[in-house]
Structure formats: C-alpha cells, structure tokens
C-alpha cells in the first residue's frame, strides 16, 4: 500500500500542512496527538475532508449539460423528492443532514433524474448556509434547462444547534426557492407541495 503523497496539494495547501493543522486542533482541545490512538487521526481527518468537501472540485452545471428533447410531448411537472444530503455549516463546521425535494416544469427539455441528485451533492459537499444552498440548486436547474419553473425545498437538521449552543434536538429547518410558474402561480406551487407531502403518508 502506497503512503499518501506529501505533495498532494489542494487549493494551495499541502497534505502535510493540513495534517499539521489537525494536530494543532487536537492539542488545543487538550489531547496528545502523539498517543497511539491519535497517531493516524490527522491522516483520517484530511481524507474525510477530501470526501466531505469534494463539491468544490465539481461544476454542477456540467451534470445538467446533457438534456433530452424526445419526451413524447410530456409537459407536466417532474418531481424528485427525498434526496438525502450531508453538508457542513460554514459558521461552526458542524454537520447538516437532511433531504432535498426538487421539481420543475419542462419546456421541451428534461434531464436524467440522477443528475439532479448529483447537483444536490455538488452543492451540499461544501461549507454551506442552507438558504444559499437552496437558491444554488434552483438557479443551477433554471440555467441548464430553462424550464417554465423550478421548485426546491430543503429540510435540514443542524448539528451546530443540537450539539452546542441551545442544544435543541428534533428541530428541522425548512427553506424553499420557487422560480418561474412556481412563484407566480399558487396552484402550481400547491401541486408541487402536495407531491412532496405525499411521501410522508
């Protein structure tokens, strides 16, 4: 098994430097980074960060660059609900875990549904504010597909609220972004919301 490349650099920071930062935090917390149980922790944390924040290396628009026009005249709402995501808040670097519901009204073009889930992951795997992530997902779909409208609802449990500060568990934050007909037409918006609520029965 090859050892990690010390020259592995991301965004101008080398792996060795990143691991040293983890050791500094361990010391600050009151631990001894040289004890047996923590010797490999810096490597593990840096590897985990590579996964948790892989979204910075992805252009979400590319996922939606391939669209399909042969849809047999289908022009009704398309909804993908309960897309699970894991993110981290940019204020405390604590996890945000939840679900995203996406809907759009096609205007001649559709996209593979797995691509919508990948767009969610691309934005979630960054330091985030839930409100911003909600708008980013909606705007990305709007740019790529130019549909009659886009609707995005995001639910998130914020560990920065449950494990520190007010220590309130069981609280879920809900944000939404409605574009085009979803913002302008209450009936279309209601239909979308009924679709995503239907999954809870």
Set down the secondary structure blueprint.
Blueprint: E1 9-10, E2 13-14, H1 15-29, H2 41-52, H3 60-63, E3 78-89, E4 95-105, H4 113-124, E5 127-128, H5 130-145, E6 149-158, H6 159-162, E7 173-180, H7 181-184, H8 186-198
Parallel strand pairs: 3-5
Antiparallel strand pairs: 1-2, 3-4, 4-6, 6-7
Structure description:
- The strands form two sheets. The chain has a five-stranded mixed sheet. Strands 1-2 form a two-stranded antiparallel sheet.
- It is elongated and about 65 Å long.
- The mean pLDDT is 92.
- It has eight helices and seven strands.
- α1 (15-29) crosses α2 (41-52).
- The protein is an alpha+beta fold.
- The chain starts with 8 loop residues before the first strand and ends with a helix.
- The longest helix has 16 residues, at 130-145.
């Amino acid at each position: 098994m090859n050892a990690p490349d010390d020259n592995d650099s991301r965004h101008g920071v080398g792996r060795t430097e990143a691991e040293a930062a983890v050791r500094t935090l361990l010391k600050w917390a009151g631990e001894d980074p040289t004890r047996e149980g923590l010797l490999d922790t810096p490597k593990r944390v840096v590897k985990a960060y590579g996964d948790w924040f892989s979204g910075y290396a992805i252009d979400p628009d590319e996922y939606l660059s391939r669209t399909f026009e042969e849809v047999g005249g289908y022009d009704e709402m398309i909804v993908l609900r309960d897309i699970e995501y894991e993110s981290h808040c940019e204020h405390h670097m604590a996890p945000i875990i939840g679900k995203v519901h996406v809907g759009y009204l096609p205007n001649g073009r559709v996209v593979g549904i797995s691509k919508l889930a990948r767009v969610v992951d691309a934005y979630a795997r960054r330091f985030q504010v839930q409100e911003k992530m909600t708008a980013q997902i909606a705007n990305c779909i709007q740019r790529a597909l130019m549909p009659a409208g886009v609707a995005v609802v995001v639910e998130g449990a914020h560990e920065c609220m449950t494990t520190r500060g007010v220590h309130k568990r069981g609280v879920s934050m809900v944000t939404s972004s409605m574009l085009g007909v979803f913002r302008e037409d209450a009936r279309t918006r209601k239909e979308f919301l009924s679709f995503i609520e239907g999954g809870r029965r």
